[in-house]
């Protein structure tokens, strides 16, 4: 394994839902759960890293300090990270870097959000130089429309069907049934998906994840600190990949209206999403064949299939075959989204990448009651956010 | 009142209308949206190039469909709906010979059933919405229907 491991001392979450309360309340709940899980006293934490939320005013912009104050100022150093959907992973990476540099021993990483109803829309005001504003103004291009472009491409290139996409939802709904932190815990049938309204062809309402309130927190420490205090049950973070794209990025990316051009410089060997996973594998020194489970960003059902290929869990165009054979179901060869995924959670942006790490930790400890992947040794997470952000975290035990 | 582009300098109007891109005068990389008329200096995004000067270049009017979809629900502001009640429209990502993919709405009267990955599409300019200054136009992608195909439909 890699020589820059850090230990996961404890994890905790606030249940996902639409609770309509302040994000600080969720964050503190998750932080206290993670601290209790780790056995670390809050006063011993020497670094707090918050995942920024952009929809909750100033307190959200300085989330690290907001959580630290709510828990009671303890003199810890503080940082706040923002990387769209990869916010949680970037916050985690900030904590890891300080621990590996010997500047911190034990850190608390927290992400929490309260989200509005409906489509995620840009902030108010006229901004003719902001692509996130322009894509709505000039094209009416919502997030689900981007997801639908990728889904349609799978259909036209690889023969995927809307039934395949529905099967992803059916599987994830079943996975999440016993997850106490999931927002949606209800069986869904293929017909339920196919008879739900089409949002952006070929995706139905039930193919697309909701936005949710929620919070996740992780207590991270050096391996020496974990051993000295007997923390964490042996779960290690082996890699956190937060790479940016390599020019020219020729796959259309939210919220842009166009790709880079490959007219002068040829496209790189790997797409951006492929490079996110590859960097994690290289950093961890772990082979894709050794992965026991994956938690990937199913913003849409079809994106789960893309991620399986981007993470080298199967060859390009083969994800539907694995899905249909039950390989990605718990009990199968490579379970994907045993937590239930975004299909059961909905997205709470700054918390979501941390929630993925919480789930992998429980899986590796054998504590994922009702959704346990037997004998899990290595887990990988993946997500992608706006503006060249993305992350992949590899954990092992 | 005359029709004017919803955004200045991104496309030409009139017959043979085209997207206006920027070509880096140092490394030749083409960019769209254009960089040459930005309020400050534009910076070439090729990491091996420090170019800050760009020449205006018209992009090819035809390309191949990379993918496509539609908007069955009315997008939130700042999208300006053209009609009440809302009417869905299609969207396409089109790969141009210059090696980039450009998103656009699909031309009036066409939907997802008229599109497939790899098919040809060409640029047209149509009305996006109307405001106090009149009709505001935008580029759109129109499926290219070859002779003979039309008769099959």
UniProtKB/TrEMBL annotation, chain A:
<feature type="domain" description="Thiolase C-terminal">
    <location>
        <begin position="276"/>
        <end position="395"/>
    </location>
</feature>
<dbReference type="InterPro" id="IPR002155">
    <property type="entry name" value="Thiolase"/>
</dbReference>
<dbReference type="InterPro" id="IPR016039">
    <property type="entry name" value="Thiolase-like"/>
</dbReference>
<dbReference type="InterPro" id="IPR055140">
    <property type="entry name" value="Thiolase_C_2"/>
</dbReference>
<dbReference type="Pfam" id="PF22691">
    <property type="entry name" value="Thiolase_C_1"/>
</dbReference>
<dbReference type="Pfam" id="PF00108">
    <property type="entry name" value="Thiolase_N"/>
</dbReference>
<dbReference type="GO" id="GO:0016747">
    <property type="term" value="F:acyltransferase activity, transferring groups other than amino-acyl groups"/>
</dbReference>
<dbReference type="InterPro" id="IPR020616">
    <property type="entry name" value="Thiolase_N"/>
</dbReference>
<protein>
    <submittedName>
        <fullName>Lipid-transfer protein</fullName>
    </submittedName>
</protein>
<feature type="domain" description="Thiolase N-terminal">
    <location>
        <begin position="24"/>
        <end position="223"/>
    </location>
</feature>
TrEMBL record, chain B:
<dbReference type="Pfam" id="PF01796">
    <property type="entry name" value="OB_ChsH2_C"/>
</dbReference>
<dbReference type="InterPro" id="IPR052513">
    <property type="entry name" value="Thioester_dehydratase-like"/>
</dbReference>
<protein>
    <submittedName>
        <fullName>Benzoylsuccinyl-CoA thiolase</fullName>
    </submittedName>
</protein>
<feature type="domain" description="ChsH2 rubredoxin-like zinc ribbon">
    <location>
        <begin position="16"/>
        <end position="36"/>
    </location>
</feature>
<dbReference type="InterPro" id="IPR022002">
    <property type="entry name" value="ChsH2_Znr"/>
</dbReference>
<dbReference type="InterPro" id="IPR012340">
    <property type="entry name" value="NA-bd_OB-fold"/>
</dbReference>
<dbReference type="InterPro" id="IPR002878">
    <property type="entry name" value="ChsH2_C"/>
</dbReference>
<dbReference type="Pfam" id="PF12172">
    <property type="entry name" value="zf-ChsH2"/>
</dbReference>
<feature type="domain" description="ChsH2 C-terminal OB-fold">
    <location>
        <begin position="57"/>
        <end position="125"/>
    </location>
</feature>
């Amino acid at each position: 394994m890699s020589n820059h491991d850090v230990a996961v001392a404890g994890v905790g979450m606030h249940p996902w839902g639409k609770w309509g309360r302040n994000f600080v309340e969720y964050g503190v709940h998750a932080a206290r759960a993670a601290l209790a899980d780790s056995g670390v006293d809050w006063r011993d934490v020497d670094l707090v890293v918050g995942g920024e939320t952009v929809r909750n005013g100033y307190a959200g912009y300085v989330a690290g300090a907001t959580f630290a104050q709510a828990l009671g100022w303890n003199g810890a150093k503080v940082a706040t990270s923002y990387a769209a959907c990869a916010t949680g992973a970037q916050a985690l990476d900030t904590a890891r870097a300080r621990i590996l540099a010997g500047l911190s021993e034990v850190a608390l990483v927290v992400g929490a959000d309260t989200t509005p109803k409906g489509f995620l829309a840009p902030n108010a005001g006229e901004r003719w130089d902001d692509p996130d504003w322009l894509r709505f103004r000039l094209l009416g291009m919502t997030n689900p429309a981007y997801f639908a472009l990728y889904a349609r491409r799978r259909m036209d290139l690889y023969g995927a069907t809307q039934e395949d996409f529905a099967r992803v939802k059916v599987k994830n709904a079943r996975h999440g049934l016993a997850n106490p932190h999931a927002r949606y815990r209800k069986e869904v049938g293929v017909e339920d998906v196919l008879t739900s309204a089409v949002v952006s062809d070929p995706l139905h309402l039930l193919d697309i994840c909701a936005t949710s309130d929620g919070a996740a927190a992780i207590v991270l420490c050096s391996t020496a600190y974990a051993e000295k205090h007997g923390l964490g049950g042996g779960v290690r973070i082996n890699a956190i990949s937060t790479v940016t794209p390599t020019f020219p990025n020729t796959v259309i990316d939210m919220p842009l209206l166009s790709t880079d051009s490959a007219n002068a410089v040829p496209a790189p060997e790997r797409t951006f999403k492929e490079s996110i996973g590859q960097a994690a594998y290289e950093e961890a020194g772990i082979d894709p064949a050794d992965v026991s489970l994956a938690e990937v960003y199913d913003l849409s059902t079809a994106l789960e299939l893309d991620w399986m290929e981007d993470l080298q869990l199967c060859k390009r165009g083969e994800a539907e075959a694995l899905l249909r054979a039950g390989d990605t179901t718990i009990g199968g060869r490579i379970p994907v989204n045993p937590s239930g995924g975004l299909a059961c959670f909905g997205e709470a942006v700054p918390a979501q990448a941390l929630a993925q790490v919480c789930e992998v930790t429980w899986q590796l400890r054998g504590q994922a009651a009702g959704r346990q992947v037997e004998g899990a040794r290595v887990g990988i997470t993946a997500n992608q956010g706006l503006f060249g952000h993305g992350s992949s975290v590899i954990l092992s035990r | 009142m005359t029709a004017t582009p919803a955004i200045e300098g991104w496309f030409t109007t009139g017959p043979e209308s085209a997207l206006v891109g920027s070509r880096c005068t140092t490394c030749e990389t083409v960019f769209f949206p254009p960089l040459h008329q930005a309020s400050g200096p534009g910076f070439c995004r090729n990491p091996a190039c420090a170019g800050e000067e760009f020449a205006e270049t018209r992009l090819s009017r035809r390309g191949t469909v990379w993918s496509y979809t539609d908007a069955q629900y009315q997008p939130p502001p700042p999208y300006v709906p053209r009609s009440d009640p809302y009417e869905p429209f299609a969207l396409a990502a089109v790969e141009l010979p210059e090696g980039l993919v450009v998103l656009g709405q699909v031309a009036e009267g066409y939907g997802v059933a008229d599109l497939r990955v790899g098919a040809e599409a060409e640029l047209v300019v149509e009305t996006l919405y109307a405001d106090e200054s009149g009709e505001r136009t935008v580029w759109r992608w129109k499926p290219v229907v070859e002779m003979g195909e039309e008769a099959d439909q």
